[in-house]
Amino acid sequence: MLGWGHARVIENLLARKPDCPRSLSDQFADARVIENALLRHGRKIRIEQRPRAESDIAVAAASILAREGFINWLERKGKELGVKLGRGVSAEIKSAATAIVEKHGAKMLSQIAKVHFRTAHEVAPTAFPGPPPRRIWMR
Question: Please, which residues have CB within 8 angstroms of residue 111's CB and are 6 or more apart in sequence?
Fold first, then answer.
C-alpha cells in the first residue's frame, strides 16, 4: 500500500511538473515496489530510495505534510462516521472498530483500516479471516 501511495504522489507530481527528473523517498522496500506501481506516465522518472532520506529537506517536509494530512483525515472521517478514529492497537481502537462495524458494516472498516490484523477479525470474524497461527522459531 505504501508503494502504491508513493507511486500516486509521483504521478500527481508529474502531471503538474512533467520535466521532473527524479523522485527521492525513504527506503521502505525494494525500489521495484514503487516502479511496478507507477502508471505509464511515471515510468519516465528516476526513482531514488535511501535509508534516512528525511535528512533531505524535501523528504522531511513531505513527511511532515503527509503526517498532517493523515491526522486531519482521521479527524474528518471520524466525525463523518460518528466515531473517534485513532492509530495503533488499544481497547479504544477496538471499541471504535466495533462501533464502525455495528453502524456501517464490515465493508466500511475495510475502507478505513488495515483489516489483515487481528483486531479486524476480532470485531468482525465472519468478514475478516483470523491471522495465521504464530510459528515458534527454532534454530
Answer: none
Distance CA 99, CA 83 (A): 7
Reported as a single tens digit per residue, the pLDDT across 62-107 is: 999 999 999 999 999 999 999 999 998 899 999 999 999 999 999 9
| Model pTM above 0.85 | no
Domain spans, the chain = 2-55, 69-123
**Residue closest to 96 by CA, chosen among 73, 72, 120:** 120
Q: Give DSSP secondary structure letters for 29-50.
A: S-HHHHHHH--GGGGGSEEEEE
Q: Which amino acid is at 11?
A: E
Taking residue 24's Cβ as centre, other Cβ atoms within 10 Å add up to: 14
Q: What are the C-alpha distances in Å from 116 to residues 79, 90, 109, 111?
A: 24, 16, 11, 12
Question: In this prediction, what percent of the chain has a pLDDT beyond 90?
Answer: 55
- Which residue in the block uniquely carries the three cell numbers 486531519? 72
